[in-house]
Amino acid sequence: MKRKADTYTDNKKRRLGAPLTSMTNTRYPLSFLFSSMVHRQSPLCLNNSSQGIVVTAPPQPNNASVYSISGDIYAFNNTSSSSSSIKAAATPTIKKTPIRLIENYHKQDTITQLQWNQNGTTLVSADETGKLALWNLENSVQSWSLTYEVNLRQPIAALFWLNADREYVVNRNGKDCVFTREKVLGPRNPFGYLAFIAVTVHGEISVHYQRNGAIFSSFSTTIPKTGHRDISRAETGCYGMALAELDDCRRISHASLNMDKEGNVYLAAYYSESYPKAVDLYNVKIKFPGKSDSGAIFCQPVPSLRFITAPEPTLQPITVPETAITHIVLSNSSQGIVLNIGFGAYDDSKSEYSCYFGKWIIQETTQQIPCNYFDGNSFGDDTISRKRKELKYQSGFALTERIITSVSCTRSGQLGIGLSDGSIHMEYQDRSEFGLLRYTTDDKATSLNSNFWQVVGSHSLEDGFFDPVLGITFSTCETHLIHMLSSGQVGSARLTTNEPNDDADQDTGTITTLEQSIKVSLLNQTDNLDLISELIRIGRLQGHKDVPERVVNNALLAYESFFYQDDINTLQATPGPDLKKDDEISDWNLARSRPAYGLAIGTYRYIPEKRIEFTNMIKAIQLPIILECFMGSCTSDMADITDVLDATVDSKKQLSFNPDSLWSLVSLSSWTFDYVRWILKEWNLLFNSRHPKNSELYDLSARPVHAVLLVHKESRSSLIQILMMIQHFIQYATTSNYELQHIPETKQLLLRHITTTLTSEPVPIKDILSFLQALGNIKHLQKNSNDEGNNESRWSILVSSRLPSGESLDELKKVTAEYRAKCALPAIYLETHKEYPVDVIRKKRIVPSEGHVQSCIRCRQLYLPVIPNAIDPTSFSSWFHSLTRRCVCGGLFF
């Protein structure tokens, strides 16, 4: 099945549904690309992190640049349908951000390596001159810092990060999938977090590791069979060596590093000048330095792979000297490390390119060696058994009129191959392996051979010439493929099955595997946007509408149960009601629930039928953040704050606040009162409206509503505590003696705003607190996820957004009727709730689409400040100070 990949080329954030800009024809001819791939490994110009940030450096002759791509880059297929309901959902956006710091560091030199570390916080970049640097990603893709830099003065042939974390994985054993944590495998840095291996073209292999913060150390050695380079002239670069006639060693043209499942590091190296063609393999062993000894690197040779004879008739041309090696990639598989080699050739007589590809696996065999011995009386024969490693051919293919321009592999070893015509082909996944990639039985159509299927069709430019694929990487959970073309365009394509196959096999079906993948992403705290995209796509298929809600609810319940019990076995299936809970962490912890909230919000964002659930999740996550802001601004002891916030204790203590945070607390209080007015209106409209019994609106628990925010125990408790903090804030601001340090002249304006706005709400705070506490006293609403016999998570009611039925609903109606005279005043229906930032000075909402004009109180000079898109509770103070700028006459803008 052929399909064209979705591409994006914009320089700024944009809607993915917008038309593409015109393609550029700036590119090198295919002959140049082929010559470059013969003499050196193709640059790794595209890489994706575990946090979903794609970093890329467009190939020449495009301008030398480095930029990151973030956002919902996997949601192309979700917006391609013509269904009207799909168009009503939120449109995904992407953001392309130049990384100026890396661009200025490498200047005009071609970047050959871009690789993220394991947790996606540090990026390594290296160029053709040997300059290498580590870049730490700060709070956003626009904030980077230089962690480490070194100039190896030689081009880098291969680079490999050493793992530092033990991640959770899913191992498939027949029909059963078991969640386990990775063992401590391979060399690890005992001094710090960061460590990597670098191999240069002159055969120097070095280990660079972090000792303490920005302090790094390194140790190195020379790979065998690389010549007789003068080690004493290590500071001499490639060009200096050539001028000094020291460049007498063989140059590594292609190399690859990888680690098998046993922790063994392998290096494959090829020298384009060697004849006959041979790929040398080494088992690299690393010993980090101790207290008394220095570090050491041991390169144990593995039998080389020589192309003297062809492994099969179709690959006979690889033995010809004119057929050159263009790609070398080491990949993992269930049987061990696999050596993938791509070949290319050009026939002058036919003016035609051709390519070949083969896979060899490293296996351990036992060799019997005959031995003759003399025991003193007679001679005898015997054999000695010796274990050795060898390369065994697996499969391959041959193509004409095309060449291989890019090769990449997933963590489990599936290959993605890009060709010179712009098409991309993916290897089928084995049924015995865990993952969502397409299986062999899903589609009988083949592309390169029976083991591959075509992901993206050929891609042509406006002038009719093909646009080769020069970079391939995979999404975090390997459900999508991201590629870069020679013209600089970047695109993505889905790699999963078109239809879920749970009906054929419930234990290893698509939906079950998707749910398990989501659980693993929550445990490892990695980006799961690609899984969300797949979950939304399946939910739009006929007969699978309930899949998103079911999968999200099961994943959140398992995620919460795991943290209560710290037992990985709770993730195997939905936890039962007999599981014991830990009372020490019974409080709602927003930091723990952040990944789970992100999953639910990210899923419901693009489902039009889940707009109410999406809004409820957004509101629920804001309440504990605002409570933390109030508590952080309070200068009283924590014991006093706890006593005040305890609703069961009638505390007479008074709280004090930091005067510099009072203006920020005004904005937070205004937002809280707006929220209370909105939720009371939603609640009373729901319970005080009458509908015929045959109406679909008669049953209040049959549809999602916003009123569940008052039923959700954690959200209700946070709101009660916020209102109690507001009471103490108003009392402190109006009765205490304090001075504003930064803007003392605004104290009177602050007091006037508090007395006129915050103390004149349509529903008094004491009545709201009384109503909320009455809801909390309902017997059926006091159950929590850590109550025995309750098999629901703290998020269950927000995920469904449906009120409880039966006796609980009757008690809710009863409490509502008791407080109708106090909490259903007409004033709560007069203002429409809008989520716009509030101008704390003019006491007016700021509409993002409109300009906000300020004027000086003296000379009436106008000022137009920058309008934020949303209010961040942690930056209210700085935002207010930006609004209160002084005019040239000395007056304030209002």
Automatic annotation (TrEMBL):
Residues 832-893 form the Mediator complex subunit 16 C-terminal domain. Keywords: Activator, Nucleus, Transcription, Transcription regulation, WD repeat. GO terms for cellular component: mediator complex. Its main location: nucleus. It is found in: Nucleus. WD repeats lie at residues 104-145. Signal peptide: none annotated. GO terms for biological process: positive regulation of DNA-templated transcription. Residues 193-426 form the Mediator complex subunit Med16 N-terminal domain. Belongs to the Mediator complex subunit 16 family. Component of the Mediator complex. Component of the Mediator complex, a coactivator involved in the regulated transcription of nearly all RNA polymerase II-dependent genes. Mediator functions as a bridge to convey information from gene-specific regulatory proteins to the basal RNA polymerase II transcription machinery. Mediator is recruited to promoters by direct interactions with regulatory proteins and serves as a scaffold for the assembly of a functional preinitiation complex with RNA polymerase II and the general transcription factors. This is Mediator of RNA polymerase II transcription subunit 16. The gene is MED16.
